[in-house]
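Sequence design from tokenized structure. All designs in this work follow the same two-part layout: the structure record, then the generated sequence. An example of the structure record is given first.
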């Protein structure tokens, strides 16, 4: 089977890129042909045979002249259609698997796939994996960066609320462009050509289903994770947070809770804009960004980890990795996080954004080592999908 993986970034940038790279490698290992389409970038590490990509769009840099064209190019991209057509004609895919495409590639690529199918008579499935809420929320996160609160006002197609709330980078102008993009493509009806929308949580599916057009197309498939050997590990005296140090991740709330528990050591592993906030707190050790064996060791030896997110997180790998390595998780009761934790068996939940509740739950787990040990033992029974099982399901969708 020939699979064209489409994503705006074709270099390591975040979770969606990790997803397409691992997915592509596995599909190739199983004898399928895989190529990629997206934006050109100096860090691009995958591609297609005809070297057809869209121009790099740097919203935070770039020339003033280039930026003048961005408002139009983020809504409709003729260039994306022209470049994609080259790949379609050459590769002749059986499946176009879309990931993040809004703004840099635009939904105009859907129109080109459909046009190519009609002109050539080729059968080509269009599958979309939703990594965020981009089809129902112009800022992709159902979160207002100005008020720092989760927001669902745009659900149901009420996209003018994006402008009212300045939901894209706190800018009325950028929010207006985001609103126009959402209104245009919902009016245009291009999304009807997507055959299947894969949601990485049931929570996301419920939000996507607020658009009746999507409700008949969505299905839930939690993210895959590399299978790790569960082994009993001698636990050390610390509570672990690993991930991005940013407001929406709940770092501020976790720091506040840690401040109320001076006798409990915390280790923070990661990086981000709130890194300065960790300085001067005696019971917090900043281990910096960790990966590979060093990160695995930190996770395995922690009494438990905390996922304090305050936005509608879907399928955070940090929650899955912790439990795969035998470490219970205290997670925020928000988004898709509760779907990954068997509360009272492999971890516990607390009210997102509530520092007092988080403090109480940390205190409870820290002072009940037997409970933590039992949660750790229970983790070995968890059956998150490995990539082979995930791809078995995916092939059924492709076919």
């Amino acid at each position: 089977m020939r699979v064209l993986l489409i994503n705006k970034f074709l270099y390591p940038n975040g979770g969606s890129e990790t997803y397409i790279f691992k997915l592509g490698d596995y599909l190739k290992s199983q004898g399928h042909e895989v190529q990629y389409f997206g934006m050109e970038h100096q860090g691009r590490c995958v591609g297609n045979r005809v070297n057809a990509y869209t121009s790099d769009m740097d919203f935070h840099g770039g020339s003033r002249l280039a930026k003048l064209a961005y408002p139009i190019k983020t809504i409709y991209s003729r260039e994306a259609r022209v470049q994609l057509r080259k790949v379609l004609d050459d590769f002749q895919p059986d499946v176009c698997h879309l990931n993040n495409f809004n703004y840099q590639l635009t939904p105009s690529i859907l129109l080109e796939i459909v046009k190519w199918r009609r002109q050539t008579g080729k059968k080509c499935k269009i599958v979309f994996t939703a990594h965020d809420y981009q089809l129902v929320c112009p800022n992709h996160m159902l979160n207002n960066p100005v008020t720092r609160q989760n927001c669902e006002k745009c659900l149901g197609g009420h996209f003018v609320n994006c402008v009212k709330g300045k939901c894209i980078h706190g800018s009325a102008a950028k929010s207006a462009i985001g609103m126009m993009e959402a209104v245009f493509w919902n009016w245009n009806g291009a999304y009807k050509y997507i055959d299947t929308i894969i949601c990485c949580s049931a929570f996301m599916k419920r939000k996507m289903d607020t658009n009746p057009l999507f409700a008949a197309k969505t299905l839930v498939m939690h993210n895959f994770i590399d299978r790790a050997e569960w082994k009993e590990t001698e636990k050390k005296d610390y509570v672990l947070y690993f991930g991005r140090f940013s407001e929406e991740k709940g770092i501020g709330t976790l720091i506040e809770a840690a401040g109320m528990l001076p006798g409990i050591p915390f280790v923070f592993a990661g990086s981000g804009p709130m890194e300065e906030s960790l300085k001067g707190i005696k019971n917090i050790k900043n281990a910096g960004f960790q990966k590979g064996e060093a990160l695995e060791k930190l996770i395995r030896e922690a009494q438990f980890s905390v996922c304090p997110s305050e936005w509608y997180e879907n399928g955070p790998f940090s929650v899955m990795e912790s439990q795969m390595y035998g470490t219970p998780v205290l997670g925020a009761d928000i988004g898709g996080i509760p779907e990954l934790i068997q509360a009272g068996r492999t971890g516990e939940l607390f009210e997102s954004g509530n520092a007092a509740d988080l403090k109480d739950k940390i205190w409870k787990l820290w002072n009940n080592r037997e409970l933590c040990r039992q949660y750790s033992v229970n983790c070995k029974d968890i059956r998150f999908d490995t990539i082979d099982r995930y791809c078995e399901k995916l092939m059924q969708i492709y076919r």
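The CA atoms of residues 257 and 360 lie 9 Å apart. We note this feature because it recurs in several other targets discussed in the main text.
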